[in-house]
Amino acid sequence: MDNTFLSPYFQQPIALGAHIVVHSMTKYLNGHSDCIGGAVVLTRPEDAEKIYFVQRSAGAGLAPMDCFLVSRGLKTLAVRMDRHNLNGMAVAKFLESHKKVKRVIYPGLASHPQHEVAKRQQTGFGGMLSFDLGSLDAAKAVLNHVKLCSLAESLGGVETLISLPALMTHASIPVDKQKEIGITQGLIRLSVGIEDVEDLIADLDQALAKVQG
Ligand SMILES: Cc1ncc(COP(=O)(O)O)c(C=O)c1O
Fold first, then answer.
1. 0.90 exceeded by the pTM?
2. Which end of the chain, N or C, is more open, meaning fewer C-beta atoms within 10 Å of its C-beta?
């Protein structure tokens, strides 16, 4: 189970029955977009043996400075996640009410197909969402005009990052396969940060005003 988007603060997969949980610590656990790391959380000693073997033989241990940065980031995980959650929900609701936005995908919205599951097993919905503007041109117009949101592929840091999956994270996937997995040309992904949410909404609002039609 990849628990990167929620972190242990909002969801604890082992308590829900998972045997292996992975995290990109690069994201929320570190939280400041200044280190690269991963964690594998195991419940069975035989799995741990295999991971130790890979760590020892492939040299996948984390450097001391990265360990320090993640440890320091963890101290503020709770306050950051609470704010990501508040901001995520406010931005999702704003986008859902905007006439140029065709669809918002955020598990905290009742319109999300797995909203009930998310409510049952999570204590928050986090800061990751995506929204569809219906065309590549419309999506590009927003990306070209945001001022507070930074154009970047990573996620889970204190700053809001915006990206275009079809041309960035998922560019290596053929367009027909992208469609099959729901990556449309007008889809924008947002990693909602911890900035003042009114500033974020104002930024998205002025960028959406640049979309034709
Ligand atoms: C959900 C998720 N899991 C894992 C990863 C991989 O993380 P990393 O880049 O730290 O290896 C990413 C991002 O790249 C991610 O978004």
1. yes
2. C
